[in-house]
Amino acid sequence: MALFPLGILSAAGAGGIVIAPLAGYFAGGWNGTVQYTTVDRYAFPSDTRTTLGTGVSSPGHTAGCGFANSLIAGYSAGGFDSGSGSRTEIDRILFATDVISILSATLATFKAGLAGFANSAVAGYLAGGITTVRVNTIEKLVFPAETISTLGTTLSATTFFYAGSFANSGTAGYVGGGDSSGFHSTVDKIAFPGDTRSTLGTGLSSPTGYLTGMANSGVAGYFAGGNGPISTVDKFAFPGDSRSTLGTGLSSGRAFPAGMAHSGTAGYVGGGNDGVNRMTTVDKFAFPSDTRSTLGSGLSIARDRGTAMASSGAL
After folding, report:
1. Confidence of residue 303 (pLDDT cuts 50, 70, 90)
2. How many helices (H) and strands (E) does the chain have?
3. Fewest beta carbons less than 10 Å away: which of 100, 113, 132, 299?
4. Distance separating alpha carbons of residues 68 and 270, to the nearest angstrom
5. Distance between CA 223 and CA 212 in Å, rounded?
């Protein structure tokens, strides 16, 4: 795993080269009434926050999913529109310029509450969610062409809606927990590149939905928060997938947070719902010690059900 701590030169066509800096993004979400398109950008490693002048497409992929082709682009997909139902659109954020556009490729059907992860430089995956019913399908967005198809492989019978997700890039993606007529602890593993599914013998430490995920690629993945709301953070060590629960969880219990990571350095969990209010809090877990701190600059708007993605370097 090669990581470039200060950014990398990337092609910008015949016109020359541009810098693709390292940063994480929290996009969209809502406060229970208003759906936001806002995108907050956290520069790595300083964690300085700026808010992009242009947000994701309206109404902000509330309850959608995020994933990234590191150093190239982040994606925010699906979600619901309180005015007209769920969505099929996929927004792309080019990391070199922060320009946001809508892909011509769309989800096979409108979908919210789905999980996203990526095999960086190869493909992103959009798993589970709800249309008019809960679904276990997995769609695959191939990089760099950005063509989308539906896999023959599906999630297991219990992993559908508002699950958490992360990936060990180059090896496997993981989808854990969720609501399938009751919360559960199942963790499914999608092996790259064959996209075969297995279910881990050890699931989450408790049945949980409305959680998020993040990963230190090559080392461990984390599922954080969830219904209750709870502050639990479960850690799955790669490659054996053994689970432990961190002694220090989130700074407070929260459901519907968003998670992303600067792989090799730290993971971040932002926003969410503490059971009363939407939150701006962003917790940071330093790798590999897993010590937690809370950023001085939280999200620019209190919200939950947002999406997140990061450009971490070469994974």
Report:
1. very high
2. 0, 28
3. 132
4. 17
5. 6
CB atoms < 10 A from the CB of 5, how many?
A: 13
Res. 17 pLDDT band, cuts 50 70 90? very low
Q: How far is CA 65 from CA 31, 48, 107, 115, in A?
A: 17, 23, 12, 5
Share of the chain above pLDDT 90, in %: 83
The Cα 15–Cα 165 span in angstroms is 37
What are the pLDDT digits (tens) for 259-293?
A: 999 999 999 999 999 999 999 999 999 999 999 99
Residue 221 tokens, joined: 């993945």
Is the residue at 9 inside a domain?
no
Give me the CATH number covering residue 242.
2.120.10.80
In one letter, which amino acid is 145? A
Expressed as residue numbers, the domain containing 306 is 26-311
Q: Comparing C-alpha atoms, which of 285, 243, 236, 237 is closest to residue 261?
A: 285
> Does position 12 have pLDDT exceeding 60, yes or no?
no
Return the ∠ at Cα 16 (arms to 11 and 20), rounded to 5°.
Answer: 45
- What the block records as the tokens of 245 is 């629960």
pLDDT at 83 (0 to 100): 62
Count of structural domains within the chain: 1
Position 278 in a domain: yes
C-alpha closest to that of 100 among 58, 43, 143, 142: 58
For 13, counting Cβ atoms within 10 Å of its Cβ (0-12 exposed, 13-18 middle, 19+ buried), the class is exposed
4 lies in a domain?
no
- Cβ partners under 8 Å of residue 22, min gap 6: 4, 5, 6, 7, 43, 44, 45, 262, 310, 311, 312, 313
What are the C-alpha distances in Å from 268 to residues 24, 57, 122, 146?
A: 9, 24, 24, 27
